[in-house]
Target: Methylenetetrahydrofolate reductase
Amino acid sequence: MSNILSFRRKAPAPAGLAGFLDGFSIEVMPRTAEKIADFRDLLPAGTRVYIAHIDGTPIEEMRATAARLVNEGFEVMPHVPARIVANKAELNDWLAGYADLGVHQALVLAGGVAEAKGDFETSMQLLETGLFDAHGFTRLHVAGHPEGNRDIDPDGSDANVSAALGWKQAFSERTDARMAIATQFCFEAKPVIAWAERLAAEGIDLPIHIGVAGPAKLQTLIKFAMMCGVGPSLRVLQRRAADLTKLVLPFTPEDFLRELAAHKTANPAFGIEAVHFFPLGGITTTAEFTSAHGAAPTRAAQA
Model:
């Protein structure tokens, strides 16, 4: 394989990590998905694949990517970002189009633009329209921020983020939708564990799908971490960058995942239900990492 970051190996997966990766999901964009000839050669059948809807991406490209992934046998979960939806009529059109393809899952979020393009500011406003239920969306994920979000809480607290999760918890209790929290990627386990335990103490029991950056060059991860507002755990990358002997080596999330997996084993009620990969170093690289660490075999491995 030409990709310089390769993680295939014959050694057994680390104890506890294989089970922790069961049911992992991965995120793609239409333009990155186009580079993959057939996802069935990389991912276990039925893997949930999120499709990121970046501002400026035509809905036709989103639908085409969704149709392709459905046809290849994957569970498709498109992003529906509130701040790039023009109005309720457009939201209805988007959801109807996805439903026609057999897609009934969505990640509902505010979106990464500073100002709304239309009538919606928040994911809560989208949920309140009732259109997800009307179009048969039975699984809805919402955004989580273990390290806070300066766009939502400029003062550095997490008051607004926490209030929003409380609202979404209540929404899940009064509707039939299966809901979960999909988080931004992090690099340090201890803040994630503390955040998840605090949510549980506050009565928020939505399952957590923890965001994890797939293997990538260190420089790439630092760039994305700064762009996406990853806070305290950025120091993990900064410490590694200070060691010139490691600067050119790929960074993998193995240590981060092992620590979370060990905590889950010791505390079965711990709120993390699944791992969600952001393939910042490439879809193929991340898929190889999951296979090498005990995820279900890919079609290519079975052949």
Remarks:
- Residues 1-15, 297-303 have pLDDT under 50 and may be disordered.
- The longest strand covers residues 178-186.
- The domain at 17-302 is CATH 3.20.20.220 (TIM Barrel).
- The chain has one domain: 17-302.
